[in-house]
Amino acid sequence: MENSSSDHTRIAIYIICALLVIAALELAQPLIAPILSAIVIGVVLSPIVDLFCRLGVKSTVAAAATLLLFLIFALALIVALEPSISAAIAQAPLIWAELQSLVELAQDASSGLRNLQESVQDALEPAAQGVVATGDSGGDAGGGGADEEELPIPSLFDALSYGPAVLGAILMFLGTLYFFLASRTGLYRQVARTIPSWRTERLHAAERQVARYFLTITCINATFGILVTVAMMLLGMPQPGVWGIATFLMNFILYLGPAVLALALLIVGLVTFEGAISFAPVAIFLTFNMIEAQFATPTLVGQHMKLNPLLVFLSLIAWLWLWGPVGGLVAIPVLVWALVMFASKYRSDQAGA
Question: Is this structure's pTM higher than 0.85?
Answer without folding.
Answer: no
